[in-house]
């Protein structure tokens, strides 16, 4: 029987896959949509949560500042996620977030003094080699020098940034 943590990781991967496929679909279907249009659309779906949050903050006013800071951090994070998806695609975003999760697992293990089990170490090694293989197999052969000399043609990003 798998523990709750494994099930949560499994669900996280499923939702990441669904979300990234949806972003790719929307980007292909509506190519002139900016990252902020997508953020607005997603946040409009969460509008019902505002009423619940206000009721919660009325009952627990000491939590209001922490919730506000959490929301600000989430908004900043959404900008990075959606700008990355808009500029580089969802596969690059998935690679970044998976690498971040991998690094946080290893750092957590090192800093807490709890060694990884054999299965956890094997899983981390598999993840590292998979990411390495993915990066090498999907690179377009374009070097950073190419990007400095002739920037990529991406009207959406220049529109978003201006």
TrEMBL record:
<keyword id="KW-0472">Membrane</keyword>
<keyword id="KW-0813">Transport</keyword>
<keyword id="KW-0762">Sugar transport</keyword>
<dbReference type="GO" id="GO:0005789">
    <property type="term" value="C:endoplasmic reticulum membrane"/>
</dbReference>
<keyword id="KW-0050">Antiport</keyword>
<keyword id="KW-0732">Signal</keyword>
<dbReference type="Pfam" id="PF08449">
    <property type="entry name" value="UAA"/>
</dbReference>
<dbReference type="InterPro" id="IPR013657">
    <property type="entry name" value="SCL35B1-4/HUT1"/>
</dbReference>
<dbReference type="GO" id="GO:0005459">
    <property type="term" value="F:UDP-galactose transmembrane transporter activity"/>
</dbReference>
<keyword id="KW-0812">Transmembrane</keyword>
<dbReference type="GO" id="GO:0000139">
    <property type="term" value="C:Golgi membrane"/>
</dbReference>
<keyword id="KW-0256">Endoplasmic reticulum</keyword>
<keyword id="KW-1133">Transmembrane helix</keyword>
<comment type="similarity">
    <text>Belongs to the nucleotide-sugar transporter family. UDP-galactose:UMP antiporter (TC 2.A.7.11) subfamily.</text>
</comment>
<feature type="signal peptide">
    <location>
        <begin position="1"/>
        <end position="21"/>
    </location>
</feature>
<dbReference type="GO" id="GO:0015297">
    <property type="term" value="F:antiporter activity"/>
</dbReference>
<protein>
    <submittedName>
        <fullName>UDP-galactose/UDP-glucose transporter 3</fullName>
    </submittedName>
</protein>
<dbReference type="GO" id="GO:0005460">
    <property type="term" value="F:UDP-glucose transmembrane transporter activity"/>
</dbReference>
């Amino acid at each position: 029987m798998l523990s709750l943590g494994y099930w949560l990781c499994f669900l996280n991967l499923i939702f990441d896959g669904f979300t990234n496929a949806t972003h790719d679909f929307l980007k292909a279907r509506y190519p002139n949509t900016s990252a902020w249009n997508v953020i607005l659309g997603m946040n409009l779906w969460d509008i019902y949560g505002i009423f619940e949050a206000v009721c919660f903050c009325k009952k627990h006013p000491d939590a209001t500042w922490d919730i506000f800071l959490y929301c600000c951090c989430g908004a900043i994070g959404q900008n990075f996620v959606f700008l990355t998806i808009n500029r580089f695609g969802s596969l690059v975003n998935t690679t970044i977030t998976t690498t971040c999760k991998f690094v946080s697992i290893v750092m957590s293990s090192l800093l807490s003094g709890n060694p990884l089990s054999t299965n956890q170490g094997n899983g981390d090694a598999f993840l590292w080699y998979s990411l390495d293989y993915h990066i090498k197999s999907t690179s377009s052969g374009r070097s950073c020098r190419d990007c400095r000399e002739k920037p990529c043609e991406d009207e959406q990003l220049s529109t978003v940034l201006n």
